[in-house]
Amino acid sequence: MKYLNEFRDGDLAQRLSAEIRAAVTRPWAIMEVCGGQTHSILRHGIDQLLPAEVELIHGPGCPVCVTPVSLIDKALAIAATPGVIFCSFGDMLRVPGTREDLFAVKARGADVRVVYSPLDSVRLAKENPDRQVVFFAIGFETTAPANAMAVHQAKRLGLINFSLLVSHVLVPPAIEAILSSPTNRVQAILAAGHVCSVMGYHQYPPLAERYRVPIVVTGFEPLDLLDGIRRAVLQLEAGTHIVENAYPRAVAFAGNRPAQAMLAEVFETCDREWRGIGTIPASGWRLKDEYRRFDAEDRFAGPDFRSVESPHCHSGEVLRGTLKPNQCPAFGTACTPRTPLGATMVSSEGACAAYFHYGRLIDLGTERATCPT
Amino acid sequence: MCLAIPGRVQTVYESDGVRMGKLNFGGVVKDVCLAYLPEVQEGEYAVVHAGFAISKVDEATAAETLRAFAAMGALADELGEEMG
Amino acid sequence: MPDLNPDVWTCPLPLRDYPHIVMGHGGGGKLSTELVEHLFLPAFRNSALAPLGDAAVLPPVAGRLAVTTDCYVVRPLFFPGGCVGDLAVNGTVNDLAMSGATPLYLSAGFILEEGLPLADLGRIVDRMAAAARAAGVAIVCGDTKVVDRGHGDGCYITTAGVGVVPDGVNVGVQQAKPGDAIVVSGPVGNHGIAILSIREGLEFESRIASDTAALNGLVTEMLAACPDLRAMRDPTRGGLAATLNEIAAASHVGIEIDEPAVPVDDEVRAACDLLGLDPLLVANEGKLVVVVPAGLAEKLLATMHRHPLGTRAAIIGTITDRHPNLVVARTAIGGRRVVSTPLGEQLPRIC
């Protein structure tokens, strides 16, 4: 595929890796914010091309991991409501709520459907006027324009049987929450390229300045990630902390204006709870008043029990980068991908699942671990 | 988050008043919403996430980036030769 | 795919009377008999089936018997490159072939949903008959039941297979040894992606078709050239990843594969990139993985390349005594990753 395969070239990857090795003189901790980047790093073994001095910390940019358990429970309760067609991206089906996941609800007869685009759920609402169609609108700024368009279309088409269960979260407040934490270890940030495709990266210079941390807008293919890391290391070694764009073919400083206009039309900023982390002020989006009647939280009653997170789950510390997944007492014993206690063990790019699947290379002993320890 | 993949705009059409397109991803063709890229034309490449084009691929910049990587390679080659 | 045309079918009357499956087709009465006589028998026609006894009585064979059974459930019933009928024959034939057996006979059990168009059943049965002919096996017994509408996906098929393992052939997943080479018979992921391409909500256009095929002919050639094959398995559900992990676990060995060496069609790779799937975890229905002593690998490969189902066979890795029970892939950029057995079906992801 053009503009994909070229950025997976093994030879150029080795050369970028050599540049990083040549530049590094001491240990650095760099956080890739986005779960998609974590996935790519593990999928391609990118971290093994890095010198031992460079530690990658997997950030909280995974909607599967940070959607609060109370909202998962709400999704499960709505999905179980007779007459509802509950639409979701495939990512969310295995995420555990307090008692079960969407697969379990589906097994009991709920109509749960995996869709590729939020517009598919609008089409379902159009085709099934006698059913309530609910779309689980998760994701960061990248996904929000798609979900905004879905509800905008529903309103335009007068679809009264369509609603969104919204759990949108925003990257910059999460970065700030991490960098401002007294236990923070992160020295440079790889910003999520596709979030910046939508939002631009004008929000980052103040963060880089305030926390004196280099921020590099980074893509998702191996060469993109290696270049992002290379630029971060060069800045760290030079003691600078500016915002750079290492993904210029898909990211402009101002981002995508039409998408931003639609976001402003449909959503407004709100406080959001992040699973395992807690509430971060102004870190999410909810439907504006004009669209509130499409809010599934208002349309359906919540579950009749209190949502609880497993007390044995330390995913919050993992998401903040202060605890390694394999330092968690439940890791690999009470908590496995088959029996996850927290969402970081569910998502394929969740740090815990990543350690479980790929981290076994650590035990090989003769080579560098996939996940730095 | 945010799996997004570049595809080539094959055709542009309208559905329910929304700008849509058929995009070709290495031989796989999928309907994609182009509402957020009103300027993208047939034959151009766009990055697609969850069925929505979110940015055009700046093809000149892509080529430039690859050239820059290759140049780093050339430097590494020279160093390697010197060391060898 | 040949459409069933009632006007040229062997005996058109019953098909015309009932264009859809009704409960009576499974009731053991006249309708059942008509279904057998006018649909199954003409398609499957063979001497063991003809008497329609309670059991097929078969001539003695020389060698060890291999018996297997499998259930076939696929939605939709027809997909690019095949239908449930092809899978039901090829899948069971392949299970026999993977144990080194020459497949001989199949049984076929049908669970039909009330309302299934008889023309669809005709096409499915037609494809089964063609697949059985191609594989050189006879469908010698069968059964049909009908369930109420809404209680099945049109047509479920169970086939059992009987084969004979020739003397001297001894393949098994527990026999892989460090140093052995691992060969795959062709590009992986086509079947799973072909199914996904027409799944509601995910549809996309492509030329990707299921790879469903009977592998016994290829296996015969392989065994003739290299009787010392250690292990063979067809990477169906769970894909190459699941199969390699099964071999590693059964043989208590590690496996190293060279990811770029694994053949994957460009379009399959593109579809995987688009949906966030790993081609190593996507299902196949006409591929095999074989473990062979390293010294025989090139000879085996040359043999496979001469067979139509093995033209793109490739050596993809080796068995190692390091990291037992672990499958490790060397990636295109020179990194390494663990290839795990998938937990369940891969779902398209956005993150």
Low-confidence spans of chain B: none
Instruction: Specify the helix fraction band of chain C.
Output: 25-40%
Distance between the termini of chain B: 43 Å
Number of strands of chain B: 5
Radius of gyration of chain C: 21 Å
Low-pLDDT parts of chain C are none
Strand content of chain B: 35-45%
Describe the protein's architecture and organization.
- The complex is a heterotrimer of chains A (373), B (84) and C (351).
- Chain A contains 15 helices and 11 strands.
- Chain A is of the alpha/beta class.
- Chain A starts with 9 loop residues before the first helix and ends in a 15-residue tail after the last helix.
- Chain B has 1 helix and 5 strands; from the N terminus they run βββββα.
- Chain C has 351 residues and is an alpha+beta fold.
- In chain C, β4, α4 and β5 form a beta-alpha-beta unit.
- In chain C, α3 packs parallel to α4 and α6 runs antiparallel to α9.
- Chain C starts with 11 loop residues before the first helix and ends in a 13-residue tail after the last strand.
- Chains in contact: A-B, A-C, B-C.
- Chains A and B meet through α1, α6, α7, α9 and α12 of A and β1, β4, β5 and α1 of B.
Q: Topology of this structure?
A:
The complex is a heterotrimer of chains A (373), B (84) and C (351).
Chain A: H1 10-23, E1 28-34, H2 35-44, E2 54-61, H3 63-66, H4 69-79, E3 84-88, H5 102-107, E4 111-114, H6 118-127, E5 132-139, H7 144-156, E6 162-169, H8 171-179, E7 188-192, H9 193-199, H10 204-211, E8 215-218, H11 222-238, E9 243-245, H12 257-266, E10 267-274, E11 278-287, H13 296-299, H14 315-320, H15 351-358
Helix pairs in contact in A: 1-11, 6-7, 7-12
Chain B: E1 5-15, E2 18-25, E3 28-33, E4 45-49, E5 52-56, H1 59-83
Antiparallel strand pairs in B: 1-2, 1-4, 2-3, 4-5
Chain C: H1 12-17, H2 30-44, E1 64-72, E2 78-79, E3 82-83, H3 84-98, E4 102-113, H4 118-135, E5 138-147, E6 155-165, E7 181-184, H5 190-196, H6 216-225, E8 231-233, H7 239-251, E9 254-258, H8 266-275, E10 289-292, H9 297-306, E11 314-320, E12 327-330, E13 336-338
Parallel strand pairs in C: 4-5, 9-12
Antiparallel strand pairs in C: 1-6, 2-3, 4-6, 7-10, 7-11, 8-10, 9-11, 12-13
Helix pairs in contact in C: 2-4, 3-4, 6-9
